[in-house]
Design a protein that fits this description.
Elements: E1 3-5, E2 11-13, H1 20-25, H2 28-35, H3 43-59, H4 66-72, H5 76-96
Helix pairs in contact: 3-5
Length: 98
């Protein structure tokens, strides 16, 4: 099974949850999509993917280097949005563990 690699080095599964309606209803679409030319991602989708990568590093308590931030184009707006998400996730986890 092959996978597409995004800007932050993460693989996208062929049988992804977001594409499940397609591949459940048309299993041959998986093989056909391998032959399709790569799609150009919208700049907003790239920013969203990169923001999720930053969020994941925060939630896993992994080091966030300047090199990583520069690679994915972190700016103050993205950092602030991600920190709001981190606080929300931490609040939800805290409430679940009470």
């Amino acid at each position: 099974m092959s996978a597409r690699i995004d800007e932050v080095g993460k693989a996208h599964a062929e049988l992804s949850a977001s594409g499940s309606e397609r591949w459940i209803n048309c299993p041959r679409s998986v093989a056909l999509s391998r032959k399709a030319p790569p799609q150009v991602e919208h700049p907003s989708a790239i920013v969203g993917t990169n923001a999720h990568a930053l969020l994941e590093k925060h939630l896993r308590d992994e080091p966030i280097t300047e090199k990583f931030k520069n690679k994915i184009g972190v700016n103050r707006h993205m950092e602030n949005g991600v920190l709001v998400a981190v606080r929300h996730v931490n609040d939800v986890v805290e409430n679940l563990t009470r």
